[in-house]
Every structure is written in C-alpha cells, then in structure tokens.
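Let us work through a complete example step by step.
Step 1: write down the sequence.
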Amino acid sequence: MKIGLTIPDFSWPGGPTKLGSTMAQIARTADQAGFESIWVMDHFWQIRGNGPPEHDMLEGYSALAFMAALTSRARLGTMVTGAVYRYPGVLAKTVTTLDVLSGGRAWLGIGAAWNEAESRGLGIPFPPIAERFERLEETLQICLTMWEGKRGSEKPFPGKHYQLGRPLNVPQSLSRPHPPILIGGGGERKTLRMVAQYANACNLFPSPELPHKLDVLRDHCQALGRNYDEIEKTAMFGFDVGEGGEKVGQVIGGLRWLASMGIQTVIGSVPRIDRIKPLEIIGEQVIPAVANLEPSAAGATR
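Step 2: predict the structure and record it as tokens.
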C-alpha cells in the first residue's frame, strides 16, 4: 500500500508571515518520511467541513511548484482541480510545467467541480452539472491531445465548449506517455465511466460502499475494453496518530480495512500537521507497517 499526504488547510500558527516556512518544513519532512505523494486542494476558499471560507487557502499549483523545489521524490498533484476553473489548454500547460520542473513528478487530479459559492464569489463560470461533466470530458481529451507530443501535427480541437486552433505544448511533459490522471468522485454513471476511459487512478471516499463502487468501475472497464487492473484505486483517509503515536494501531487498522476492500493507495490529511512530529511518526511507524499490504481481490462484491 502506498501512502499519500493531502494538505487541506493552511491556517497555522503565525499566519501568512510564517506560512511559507511551515509549508517548506512540512514538504521536506513528508518527502523524507516516505510519503509517495503530496496533494493540495484546488480551491481558492476553504471548504465546508474544514473551516470557514475566510481561513487561509493557497492557490494549488503555486503551492505545488513551491514544494517541487523542496522535494525530490514525492509526486505532486491537486485533490482535485475543478474542470471549470481553468481553460483546458492552460491547465495542460500548467501541469506540464510542474512535471518538467519537478523532474517528472506531476499528477493531474481533476473533477467536475462542486463549489458554487466559491465560483460565484470569484467570477468563475459555474454551469449546470450536466455541462460541467461535458467540460470535464473535453478537458481530459484536450490534455491527452496536448500530451501526445507530435510536433508539427497539432490538429485543431473542435469541442462543444472549447475550441483550440493549435494545441501546441512545448516543452513536452517528462512523464510519458503523459502525467498520470486521477479523477476524483464516485458518481457511477459519469465519473467512474470517465475513470475507465481516461484516467490512471480513481479517488473515492472511505465508506462501506467502496466494493460496490469498484464493481461499477470494473463494469465500465469491461464495456470500454479497458484493463481494470491498470487503474490505481485510491481513497481518502485521516492519519490521526495522536500526539505521541498512541493511535498508530488504529490508523494501521483502518488502512488494513481499506486494503480489504481493494484500495491500493491511501491519501490522507494529518491533524496538527504544522507540528511536524505526526509526519515523522507516520514515516517511522505507519508507512513501513503497510508497505507490503496488498489490496484484497475479495474487495469486489461479486
């Protein structure tokens, strides 16, 4: 099992003055502790469940670029970019830049977007959900087209929502055939179908419904002729190991539960992350304990 870190909140002691130095310490520690990946939300305001909109929130790709210069092994991505936040050609270029400057460590994490208040507040168009999914699919198609890397043969993209006259992308990404794509969400009719068609990984919530969601993904793969085993199955989690590691056993138990349902990679937040010690405990006690933990084929319900 692989372990990733997501950083969903930046409201740490010291405020904006110390935010950069705290972020640097977190990134370096996570990289050295053995976290396979580091993720930030692609939101401009804090989201419900984490805190009020006024809490400190960094722009995702700027934060990832900052961390790319401070790390050497962890992969980097957003959990996840709303498809309506950026023009697809600009998004492909942004992720390519992160991939090149990080030495080939970028992910494209993407979804259909849901935060209407944030979008309305910042003047970002927020169409109805059916159109957001159409735009998500066109964005995936455009990114894959731009990552093909065929110099001089960039054909126009005549989409319903986006029209690109020349989808040129130079320099090309270091990750080949392209930066891996993670699609967030468990919608059974559209989201998981797009995972089967376009993505390298899915990202699901840790609930008893996981085996059913993976069965649905398997069905989509079969219908599209995609190898289900090629897709990395990831889930969100909370790595609360306690102040001194007293909850490590509970965390490992939760990871075993997720593996029993077919999850290969767990991406989680860490309470009190600015104190750094919890990251070190995870690196010393949790990551080695689950390194050889294999997902169970019995995770599927049929």
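Step 3: interpret the result. The mean pLDDT is 95.
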